[in-house]
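FIELD: query
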Amino acid sequence: MTLNYMFQLGGWAMWPLLLFSIVTMSIIIERFIYFLLHNLKVEHVKKNVLEKIREGKVSEALDYCSSCPKKLLSAHIFSAGLRVLTLGEHRMEKAMETEASEKINALEGGFNLLLAIGSIAPITGFLGTVSGMIGAFSSIAKADEVNAQLVAGGIFEALITTAYGLSIAIVAVSAYYILIHIVDRFSARVEEGGSEIVTALLMDDYVNGAERQ
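FIELD: result
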């Protein structure tokens, strides 16, 4: 039984399900390419920044972060905090939080749509099944003789949309949780790294000195 034949048996509901499947795969592919093109590593950048701070080379730490490629997201988040060092601890933390929020929002592009499709696709499939069952029972009611083949054939056709809808939902929701896990892990590491950088500056009295001035 070919995919095209199954599609025809499914009826009208297969068209929105086809659209959902195309959108789902497009988002998944686009997001994975976006993640591959943007470096989500944090540890290496954090280590270099902390080393320079502990050596008393805060300006070099800022220069290092600023010189990193734009696609190395953690470097530019830390850079946002180091640029406002003279304004004090709380302003540094706020600057890094704001920059991190912007980067994370960019990483999460399309996530809500994936989750929405994961909810709507099975409902659309069920609606197609109900519509198909109505047609099947209508045919049974009009038939002079009812046999198992007629009943089973109608139910089989009606259940195709449910299977397609559930399959799309599984892919969409699974991809969502995989992608959100990657973003959450990046977010946690950036938050930890920012906290360590601020602590290192406080221990060396850079921020306190700036606040006193």
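FIELD: remark
The two ends are 78 Å apart (CA to CA).
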